[in-house]
């Protein structure tokens, strides 16, 4: 038999194991930074380990789990050649779903799917995920990078993640705690976050023909830089709020917009009114609406319109809640209240016009 084999191999099928190993080596330093005392072991195991004895301090610990991705925002990152911000988006999408029920995020795992492994690119993505975990106070205990030649183009990729958190059973937040008269506190988003990019890309690129390197005076930077602004991670801010004020519920404003997401925590018989005049959406929302002649209700069904998280608190807790958030650098305001629901009214109503 010839020393030079002409048979098929994994490499000839398009999978580069050596590049994958190189990517793992490059990401090690970042993963080490995204840890907690309870995280056991290091990079390279078949499973991430977390010391559950830390939960002994809970009377009745409830584990919370969430999973999400970044959606078509990854296409902006690919075209911009910027890969270290979408990890923040991924972490924010997951941990801020966990904290809605009052859960402290404990650890995350990630999944990166690529058409071809470029080690520096994969490491940059993981760097962003690790940095996001640090901001969220959770550990990155494991992950997977999969190379899918033939299914994805060489420059194409996608990311997803899953997280686990814990909350004491008697401190579980949600609809059952909300009462008439509660204040609805809005927390500002950092921009589009990671939702609605299919609409955004259709409007700005397909219809308006804009370029990512276009300088936009209202942004003070290029269009691409604005679109890649990372999702704000609220988990530690929300947990701090639960320690200083009574909180009845949170709502993470993601796909579906403010009304649809807030409605998920409004109980039968009650109604949330939210006054648009209490805030001004950032210029990126106006650009999308204007460039695509998108009606306001359609924008509000798709984008966060400048609000990334909602807290529902008793009226008497509103002032201390706002002070806590301000001390943590979170722009927040009272945007509405909880009232009795009349007849067949929707769970949430947005009133007024946005402040100019």
TrEMBL record:
Pathway linked to the protein: Purine metabolism; IMP biosynthesis via de novo pathway; 5-amino-1-(5-phospho-D-ribosyl)imidazole from N(2)-formyl-N(1)-(5-phospho-D-ribosyl)glycinamide: step 2/2
Any one GO molecular function term: phosphoribosylformylglycinamidine cyclo-ligase activity
EC numbers on record: 6.3.3.1
One CC-aspect GO term: cytosol
Keyword terms of this UniProt record: ATP-binding, Cytoplasm, Ligase, Nucleotide-binding, Purine biosynthesis
CDD domains, A to Z: PurM
Pfam families: AIRS, AIRS_C
Name by which UniProt lists this protein: Phosphoribosylformylglycinamidine cyclo-ligase
Organism: Streptomyces gilvosporeus
